[in-house]
Amino acid sequence: MSVEFINVHKSFNEIEGKPKYVLEDINLKIKTGEFICVLGKSGCGKSTMLNLLAGYLKADKGRIIVDGVDVKGPSAQRGVVFQQHALFPWYTVKENIEFGLKLKKYKKPEREKIVKQYIDMIGLQGYENAYPSELSGGMAQRVGIARALVNDPQVLLMDEPLGALDAMTRDIM
């Protein structure tokens, strides 16, 4: 799935009546199958760029195109792993992971099989019925990663997804 930013601008605040751009005139082409990493200092617009591509924000100017189609809003084709886990606090580990599968109308037996595979993958067997408030930060982050991956997105956007994990778990993930 190809991604293209064409002359993208994004501002948040105005200073003396003029927009203060976080991103200005961003042009980028990512070919299908490419893996890229955006590096920069804190506050330079990395997360903003990911949120624009995810469809959570709208650019002030320019276009963002995924596989020839303009990004108009969020899509299951673009999975997001946030810096903070962003789990639904009222859902258990199992329910958080299966959320997207329910939206896609997977039958219960198939959902349960897939969710078990992901719980095994992230090493949280025995925590299926735990709520996010009952998990450590690293455990909750692993659930967030599984929730994004279970939907098999064509583009996976990760905003410092391993920051809350210890070194050993980070290597495994």
How would you describe this structure to a colleague?
This protein has 173 residues and is an alpha+beta fold. The protein folds into two domains: 68 residues, P-loop containing nucleotide triphosphate hydrolases (Rossmann fold); 95 residues, Rossmann fold, CATH 3.40.50. 31% of the residues lie in helices and 24% in strands. The strands form two sheets. It has a four-stranded antiparallel beta sheet, covered by helices on one side. Strands 5-6 form a two-stranded parallel ribbon. Helix 2 runs parallel beside helix 4.
Q: Which oligomeric form is depicted? A: single chain
Succession of helices and strands: EEHEEEHHHEH
Helix proportion range? 25-40%
> What is the rounded Rg?
18 Å
Strand content: 15-25%
List the main descriptive attributes of the protein structure presented here.
single chain, 173 residues, alpha+beta, Rossmann fold, 2 domains, 4-stranded antiparallel beta sheet, two-stranded parallel sheet, globular
